[in-house]
Write a structure and sequence with these properties.
The chain is α/β, with parallel strands linked by helices. The protein is built from 9 helices and 7 strands, in the order βαββαβαβααβααβαα. The chain has one domain: SGNH hydrolase (Rossmann fold), CATH 3.40.50. GO terms for molecular function: hydrolase activity.
Length: about 260
């Protein structure tokens, strides 16, 4: 038995969206914290916020995480940045590196990921999928740089075959389902065990989470899905169309330009 402080930083995935329980959202970080609690006294602080981008984590979540003095800290953010016209490679890299350095500087073991091909999961056509994938690839380069500099545990979602299974995802295909959250928690748990942070692994069997129904799917589509698609279409529609034309004409590189903010986004 030991005392473990765990701080989770990031966006809606770490917040737990997709894994609904009566009290709200649970998610992979909570599942992992509970598993660590099987052998350790755990102080868990989930600072992740739905919709967060890299700058939010750097300016708002990091100070609270440092105050928690974590032994383990997860840093998983950036996908929301790829879906916005404010995409800025240099700033995103700088802020991710600063955040990772600050967490590592307190002695925290870092938990990070390399992202999968979201466009493939979404089922996007190639001309739209490839520009998005270019941005995801850049994020993965930054997370590889972080892992090379500070070590810790890194899960490569692109190498996990279950990520391409429909059951891994909730209705929006952006957030993991309960099964997906459990899979991610087990991936981190297995690696922590290998490093000597011995604990019982999160269970595979789904339990406690809300069971999806066609009514819940329809409710999400009306209340969340359609408004979200509308916001992203206004913001990224012109950029995606321009990238498709550029690719069709054989010009490159894709995903390298900083796109100006679209009026009314």
């Amino acid at each position: 038995m030991g005392y473990v402080r765990f701080a989770a930083l990031g966006d809606s995935v770490t917040h737990g969206v997709g894994d609904a329980v009566p009290a709200g959202w649970r998610g992979w970080a909570r599942l992992l914290a509970d598993a660590l609690g099987s052998r350790h006294d755990v102080s868990f602080c989930n600072l992740a916020v739905s919709g967060a981008v890299v700058s939010d984590v750097r300016t708002k979540q990091l100070p609270e995480a440092l105050a928690h003095r974590p032994d383990v800290a997860s840093l998983i953010v950036g996908v929301n940045d790829t879906m916005r016209s404010t995409w800025d490679r240099e700033r995103i890299r700088r802020e991710l590196l600063e955040t990772a350095a600050a967490l590592h500087g307190t002695g925290a073991l870092l938990l990070t990921v390399r992202f999968h091909d979201h466009g493939r999961v979404f089922g996007l056509p190639g001309v739209l999928r490839r520009p998005l994938h270019a941005r995801i690839a850049f994020l993965n380069e930054v997370y590889a740089e972080i892992h090379a500099a500070y070590g810790g545990v890194q899960v490569d979602l692109g190498e996990r075959p279950e990520v391409l299974e429909r059951a891994f995802w909730s209705v929006d295909r952006l957030h993991p389902s309960e099964r997906g959250h459990r899979s991610l928690a087990r991936c981190f748990g297995e690696r922590l065990n290998e490093l000597g942070w011995l604990h019982d692994l999160p269970g595979d069997a789904c339990e406690g989470g809300a069971v999806p129904t066609w009514r819940s799917d329809l409710h999400w589509m009306v209340t969340e899905g359609v408004p979200w698609c509308g916001r992203r279409a206004r913001d990224l529609g012109p950029w995606a169309a321009r990238m498709a034309v550029v690719e069709a004409r054989g010009r490159a590189p894709l995903g390298r330009q900083r796109v100006p903010i679209v009026s009314g986004a």
